[in-house]
Amino acid sequence: MDSDIIIKLNKVNFYYGQSRALTDITMNFRKNKVSALIGPSGCGKSTLLRLLNRMNDLIDGTRIEGEIFFEEKNIYAKDVDPVEIRRKVGMVFQKPNPFPKTIYNNIAYGPKLTSMNTDDLDTLVEQSLKQAVLWDEVKDILNKSAMNLSGGQQQRLCIARALAMKPDILLMDEPTSALDPISTAKIEELIEELKKNYTIIIVTHNMQQAARISDETAFFYLGNMVEYNKTEKIFTNPDVKHTEEYITGRFG
Amino acid sequence: MEDMMKSFKNNSMKWRYFKQTLFFGAVRLSALIIALALGGILFYIIVNGIGAISWDFITKPPTDSMTKGGIMPAILGTIYLTIGAIAIGLPLGIASAIYLTEYAKQGRVIRLIKVGINCLAGVPSVVFGLFGLGFFVIFLKFGSSILSGSLTLGFLILPTIIGAAEEALKAVPQTFREASLSLGVSKWQTIYRIVLPNALPGILTGSILGIGRAAGETAPIMFTAAAYFTAKLPGSIFDEVMALPYHIYVLATAGTNIEATRPIQYGTVLVLVAVVLSIDLIAIIIRSYMRKNKRW
After folding, report:
1. Rounded to an integer, what distance in angstroms lies between the CA atom of residue A24 and that of residue A9?
2. A49, A220, B9, B194 — which has fewest CB within 10 A?
3. Is B76 within the bounds of a domain?
4. Is the Cβ–Cβ distance between A146 and A158 less than 8 Å?
5. What are phi and psi of A209, to 5 degrees?
6. Does residue B117 lie in a domain region?
7. Do the Cβ atoms of A90 and B182 come within 8 Å?
């Protein structure tokens, strides 16, 4: 296996009850790249994202076929604890969802409870907030409730919270869809910065965003992966006509 | 013709306005009747009972075959029984609700359990009393005691607490659970650290109803805990106690001189109402304190 591949999907089918949400997906995600998943609503891109940290386990009546390898280990093997996977694969959600706790405790929550090596929690909190470019804005109000922050700040806090766990991969499920353009720009800059140290997989409805920030883009339609290629190629000269039609806004 | 249209229109407006006033009046009256009923009862109790209240009344045991003296043992007994019922009903109820909402796979078995809980809520309290007598007092040999009474009352208020806890747990946004789990925090830790603290104010609100009921019930403690008369204060949870609701029942129906004890009866009722309201008040204070930092 190519050494810069961190996640590998092999013939993955996924079902919600009787209905199939993903069909025969085989694809690789590369280390320290930003990969974007695009496609119309209901195409399965968010479902795919949530397969990578086993968040779909939370939904009753779901079933997966096939294998997903994370660093050569099938994360759906019987002996794998999903909790362990989630420590290495962080997630940022569509709507900012800080805990109703202080800013400090939002960040410290994960490391404290997962008995990570936390000799110096203060440093870890500072480091994570700096990584998420939020430190300067909140360093004097660390003991205030995170609920008082603006939407954009809350989302960066959620990113910092995920980073505090020192994951290898960061999954982002439409992280800017609830934010204004300025906050969105800040998050996009942040993603650019983060990819030096993390592998980022992002679901987005915003075509320009995918074009701006991702190295690779996968286009999904009705649970199928239609095309997966370098972002530049997808947006300038896609192989499949369907992809071109979606990107140019002729349907979707 | 135009005039006719206009007047018709005006009339229809008037008619609608009249209907609105009528219905608003009706719903307002309903609310008023309830408030008046409550106010009336309280007023009646206070007017008739206040005369009996004195420092000795609430700090001394009854004397002269319960026709004189105070009701201190009954006050204490009711407080013990209520605290006992909370200590048993609250943890058990919260635990059941956590299982039902967070862990159990929704399906036929869970639906059946929920129907069962609802049925339990409809069981008359005297049946709980008989169950307590048969199971706790006789079978488990706890005797007529604080323990038996607390257990019986605890089970009596269980459905109320389970219901309240279920609603409160469901009201905690799913996004909190997802955020916590996505950090690699285990399910139990997520429930314990995120879900439960945020649900607790809601759980308490609902449980207040149950707690008030535990303090005021007569039938469940009649066979399991309450003594007709004992001047001796309980030394352990295996002792019998006097209790306010049962004391009222005794004074009003089986006392040595029912007419003569009328003022004491009203005084006891007033104290019981005050005790129930204070327990509610404590729960409300705890709740508002917990709510301070929990906004989402």
Report:
1. 9
2. B9
3. yes
4. no
5. -60, -45
6. yes
7. yes
Mutation target among B108, B176, B181, B182 for the A interface, most CBs of A within 10 A: B182
- How confident is the prediction along chain A (252 residues), in pLDDT tens digits per residue? 467 899 999 999 999 988 999 999 999 999 999 999 999 988 999 999 999 999 998 888 899 999 999 988 999 999 999 999 999 999 999 999 999 999 999 999 999 888 766 678 899 999 999 999 999 999 999 999 999 999 999 999 999 999 999 999 999 999 999 889 998 999 999 999 998 999 999 999 988 999 999 999 999 999 999 999 999 999 999 999 889 888 888 765
Chain A residues closer than 8 Å to B175 by CB:
93, 95, 97
Give B69's contacts (C-beta < 8 A, 6+ positions apart). Answer: B56, B60, B61, B62, B63
Find the domain containing B130 and state its range: 71-291
Q: How far is Cα B282 from Cα B274, in angstroms, rounded to an integer?
A: 12
CATH number of the domain enclosing A54: 3.40.50.300
Touching A: B residues 79-138, CB under 8 Å: 105-106
Q: Find, in chain B, the residue whose alpha carbon is nearest to that of A109.
A: B180
CA gyration radius for chain B? 25
**Residue A213 in domain:** yes
Task: Establish if B182 touches chain A: CB-CB under 8 angstroms.
Answer: yes
Of the partner residues A53, A87, A99, the one whose CB lies closest to the CB of residue B176: A99
For strand A224-230 and strand A19-30, is the pairing parallel, antiparallel, or unpaired? Answer: unpaired
Structure tokens at A247: 């990107």
Residue A55: closest C-alpha in chain B: B182
Owning domain of residue A71: 5-247
Query: Has residue B10 been placed in a domain?
Result: no
Spatial contact of A56 and A236, defined as CB atoms under 8 Å apart: no
Contact across the interface for A60 and B105, Cβ inside 8 Å = yes
The model carries a pTM of 0.82
Q: Measure in Å the smallest separation between the Cα of A61 and chain B Cα atoms.
A: 10
Does B290 lie at the interface with A, CB-CB under 8 angstroms?
A: no
Would you state the structure tokens that stand for residue B51, as one six-digit string? 């005369």
Domain count, chain A: 1
* A chain contacts of residue B186, beta-carbon cutoff 8 Å: 83, 113
> For residue A252, is it within any domain?
no
CATH value at residue B244: 1.10.3720.10
Domain contains B216: yes
